Amino acid sequence: MASYDLILVGTSFASSFFLHEYLRHARPDAKILVLERGGRWPQAKLVNEIRYALRTIGDRTFRRTGRKPWLYAPAFGGTSNMWYGNTPRLLPEDFETRSRFGVGVDWPIGYDDLEPYYCDAEDLMTIAGPSEHTPFRRSRPYPHSAHELSDPEKLLLSRHGDDFYACPTARAHDPARPGVATDRAPCCTSFVCNFCPVDAKFTVLNGLAQIYDDPRVELRLGAVVQSVSSAAQVATGVEWLQEDPNLLASPEAIASRRDASASAEIVALGANALFNPHILLRSGLDDGVVGRYLHEQVGVDAFIHLGGVEGFNGSTSCTGHHYRFARGDHRRERAASLLETFTRTHLRIEAGKWRHGLRVTGVFEDLPQAENRVEVDPRDPSKPVTRYRHYSDYAQRSIDRFAQDLEVMFEGLPVEDMIIEEPRDSEGHILGTARMGDDPATSVVDRDQLHHGLRNLYVLGGSSFSMGGAANPSLTIAALSLRSARRGFGGGG
C-alpha cells in the first residue's frame, strides 16, 4: 500500500486553501495525495459544456428525502467553479450568538482569532472591497478597490450610511492595491457570475491550480472516498472507490469502480458537508453528533420599484450589502438577514420606467436543528442520504417580517412598490454536520478542525460551522483552512 505524509480529500475551498498553507511548511520531499471524485476540465469546457451537467452529476452522488436540493459542483475546484463570488466575513456577533442573544451555540473561536486569516484569504482571492467604510474590523485593506455602486445603491449609502456598504467580491476590479497583482480580467458586468465567461471571478482553476502541479502533490481524479482507516485512536489512511471521472458519476462510472486505499500520517477531509459526515459514519466514527445540524441560509428575492431612479449602472452583478437587520438585539427573537442589492435586475413592465427599480435578496440565517441530518444511505451505503424537515421557526419569523424590514431599509428612497417572491429552494451553502466546539459530547471537531477522537484527522469546510450566520460561507471556509494548516504545521499552534 502506498504511503503519504498527507492524504487530502477534495479540491474546493476547504482543501485548496489548506493545501496552499500546508505546502508552505512541508518538507521538500513530502508526499501528498489529493483525492477528487470529479474530473478536471479547463475553464472553456466548464463554461460551455460541463456547467449544464453539474447539478445532474451532483444529484447522482447522493440521495435526498423530500424536495430540498443541496447544490455543489463535483469537479476539480469544486464549488469555486460555480459560486457567485460574494465574500462578506462573518460578524463578531455571529461567533457569539449564545452568549449575546441566548440562541444556538457559540463558536469555540471568535472573530479576532480568524481576522488575520480572513485577510490572507482575501489576498489570495484578490477580493475587491471597501477598505474604509466596512462593517468589519480590519487589520489591512482589501487587495482591490470596491466595485462602483448603482444609482439606487448610492442613495442607500447616502440615506443609510451606517448600515449600507459596497459588497466585497471575488469578481476582479481595477485598480489593485500596490504590491498585489492578479492576472484575472476585470468583471465586465455580464451577469453570468456562476460560470464567468471572462474568468474574472476567483476559482481554484485560475487562482490555486499551481499547488496541484507541485512535484510533492499527486492528484487522483475519480476517487469516491468511503472511509478513514484508524487504529489505536489514530487515523492511518483512506479507502476509496476508483472510477472513471470522465463518465460523470453515471451507471457506467459505477460499473468501472475498483477498491483502492493508501496510508498517511495525516488525513484531511474537505469533501463538503454532505460527504464529510458520510465518510466519518462509514469509518465507524458515529458519536451521535456526526451528520446532524445540516442547514444553509434561506434566500428571498424582491424587486423594489423606484420612481425616477435607474438601477443598471453598477460595475458588477451584486454591488451592495445592507446590514440593518444582519446585526442587533432582534436576533434574540428572530434570524439575522443580510440584504444583497444587485445591478443585475429585472425590467419593470411599465412604459417609461423599464429600468426604474432594484433587485434585492434577503439572505436569512437558519438555526441549525439536530433532526436535519446526513446519514449513510441504507439502499446504497456508498452514498449519503439527506433527511431534512424544514428550516427553523427562528428563520421563518424574520422571513415573515421581510416586507416591514424592507420599508425600514429603503426609508427615504422614492419607493413606489415592492414585489416579494417565495423563498428560494437553495442558496448553495451546505453547512453543519461535523460542527466545531470544545465539548466532544456536542461537537465533532475542535477549534482547529481536528477530530476530537482521531487527533491526526482534520474535517474541513462548511461542515465545521457551529452556526451559519447570514454571510456567504466560502471566505470563512478558506480562512478556517488557512488557520488550521498554519496552526498545525507552521508553528502557529
UniProtKB/TrEMBL annotation:
<protein>
    <submittedName>
        <fullName>Fructose dehydrogenase large subunit</fullName>
        <ecNumber>1.1.99.11</ecNumber>
    </submittedName>
</protein>
<dbReference type="Pfam" id="PF05199">
    <property type="entry name" value="GMC_oxred_C"/>
</dbReference>
<keyword id="KW-0560">Oxidoreductase</keyword>
<feature type="domain" description="Glucose-methanol-choline oxidoreductase C-terminal">
    <location>
        <begin position="368"/>
        <end position="480"/>
    </location>
</feature>
<dbReference type="InterPro" id="IPR036188">
    <property type="entry name" value="FAD/NAD-bd_sf"/>
</dbReference>
<dbReference type="InterPro" id="IPR007867">
    <property type="entry name" value="GMC_OxRtase_C"/>
</dbReference>
<dbReference type="InterPro" id="IPR051473">
    <property type="entry name" value="P2Ox-like"/>
</dbReference>
<keyword id="KW-0274">FAD</keyword>
<dbReference type="GO" id="GO:0016614">
    <property type="term" value="F:oxidoreductase activity, acting on CH-OH group of donors"/>
</dbReference>
<comment type="similarity">
    <text>Belongs to the GMC oxidoreductase family.</text>
</comment>
<keyword id="KW-0285">Flavoprotein</keyword>
